[in-house]
Amino acid sequence: MKSSWADAVAEETAASGSVDSNVTSAPTAPTKSTYVPPHLRNRPVAAESPALPLSGPPSGYNSTGYSAGGAGQRSDYGRQAYNTSSRGGGGWSNRGGRERDVNPFGNDDVNVDVEQAFSGHENSGINFDAYEDIPVETQGDDVPPPVNTFAEIDLGHALNLNIQRCKYVRPTPVQRYTIPISLAGRDLMACAQTGSGKTAAFCFPIISGILRGNIAQRPRGTRTVFPLALILSPTRELAIQINEEAKKFSYQTGVRVVVVYGGAPINQQLRELERGVDILVATPGRLVDLLERAKVSLQMIRYLALDEADRMLDMGFEPQIRKIVEQMGMPPPGERQTMLFSATFPREIQRLASDFLLNYIFLTVGRVGSSTDLIVQRVEFVQEADKRSYLMDLLHAQKDDGTHGKQPLTLVFVETKKGADSLEHWLSRNGFPATAIHGDRTQQEREYALRSFKSGNTPILVATDVAARGLDIPDVSHVVNFDIPKDIDDYVHRIGRTGRAGKTGLATAFFNEGNMSLAKSLADLMQEAKQEVPAWLTHYASRPSYGGGKNRRFGGGRSGGGRYGGHDIRRDSFYNNSGGGGNSGSYGGNTGGRYNSNYGGGYGPGPGANSAWDE
Ligand SMILES: Nc1ncnc2c1ncn2[C@@H]1O[C@H](COP(=O)(O)OP(=O)(O)OP(=O)(O)O)[C@@H](O)[C@H]1O
Fold first, then answer.
1. pLDDT tens-digit profile of 571-611?
2. Structural element, H or E, at residue 364
3. Is any ligand 1 atom within 6 A of the Cβ of residue 197?
4. ipTM surpassing 0.95, yes or no?
5. Which ligand 1 atom sits nearest the alpha carbon of residue 493?
6. How many Å apart are CA 80 and CA 520, to the nearest integer?
7. Alpha carbon of 478 to those of 124, 389, 482, 501, 560: distances in Å?
8. Measuring from atom 13 of ligand 1, which residue has the nearest CA?
9. Which segments constitute the DEAD-box RNA helicase Q domain (predicted)?
10. Angle at which helices 284-292 and 318-326 pack, to 10 degrees?
């Protein structure tokens, strides 16, 4: 059932006088964690130690979101903004008044007619029908029901206005399920296909929660800032992108979003923090630096979101995330709300992740780790020596098909940084304007390359895995896996740079003898996404020696979880027997050994390999 915003407003007004009997009361305020991280010990106490932020949902939530009047605290909710400074938004020079938000939407469209909101037709070119029959599974206790429209969830006037400005008319499937779950205060592990709107799925509840929550006064007069929400990203460009998105969603709400990431001058980021921060978007390395310098404190974190969560807990990177989440003063599970999102979630990673969660809901939209049917996948047998000329043929054909002979945006993935440089130069020399992005480039060069690609100035971007995850570049029409990744999950993320938000896309992979270990998982994945699998690939895939065995996602075969997505490891006997079911951290102690032995290599950045990780 679709209802308009106007209906929702009317219903809300009618409801505001009464107390909803279904309202679940907010959990009792958590007791304060006694742990004080070393960098905060012996500090002069400028204000009271921060009272812990609210845990769980603010009063007044019911299963579909927020029930007006439940706690009698709605009076200021329709406001355009709340004043971060008065909430001790952090910083050692809290401004006296709220500064003007820079309009992230450009000059247009600021006078959105909210009465018309969500009642119109699709206006963003998003093909939502593509998602209509997508299988969704949820596991866990008391899962709040999904919604069909934004109007069914009261995210608040200011946020709704921004959703409108973004031209989002309907929630995508992952948003339909996750927003009510998050608004109900539940921890969440969500697996949904690339390009399906996961960023908004975790940003909306965070912003809405901050706006309506009873946020404890944050300390003043200290040079440390106390964000309320932390969003972690594995790469700098993704952090930048999440920051831009979150800024749009929180425009004129008074919620302040700041991003910190490595490779950029720290002083500039410190100045931004100084002006106050509610939502901090960060890459882990730079965040640890700021925590150790006591510029940021996690003591008041109420929401923690890990985007690309499986990458964040990837072998080699997990200790840093554990440090941030478990050893730097952040409130423990139950006293904060934790949301983990990715398109892929290997079982082993789920086990690690469960340490961060309490009584969580496991959600899958589509199958765990599957790719979307919107991407046409092709795989060609191409010998190493022939790859360049093959690529050239593809690019020529594409150009001929393109509008006015223009080269459509093409993203070419290679294995090494050197390989990226070399291919970029070769393409440029041969009349194809190309640029490259990889970990050896300066941050300035990386950002310039991305901008140049997005704008179409250099319509070919040669990239390592640093660009594989999360980047939302409109109109990438072709992803070429010039070098096939060693891990099928990386393949899923790479091809997911096209075919986003309901649009179709094309992905071509160059396969040869060097990629045999991926034959089975690639053939299975393509079959599952209803793609044409070449006979030669099926043949290789059927050979026991090429049968994967390394397919870490499903313990040696893609058998886990049935046809549709949901495989929640809490169902595994292994998990239950190992005492890992209680989210109690009991798994943590011997994680490393078990984890490593399960992997048998081939996972994570090996010697000489590129890392998609940033600091
Ligand atoms: N409800 C919506 N209506 C229309 N467009 C939407 C909606 N939600 C998100 N989008 C758009 O869909 C695109 C993909 O969203 P997003 O980048 O969040 O995907 P994702 O699931 O995080 O992908 P990935 O797995 O690659 O990180 C973005 O351009 C975003 O603006």
1. 765 555 544 433 333 222 222 322 322 222 222 333 333 34
2. strand 361-365
3. yes
4. yes
5. 26
6. 54
7. 21, 17, 12, 15, 31
8. 501
9. 148-176
10. 40
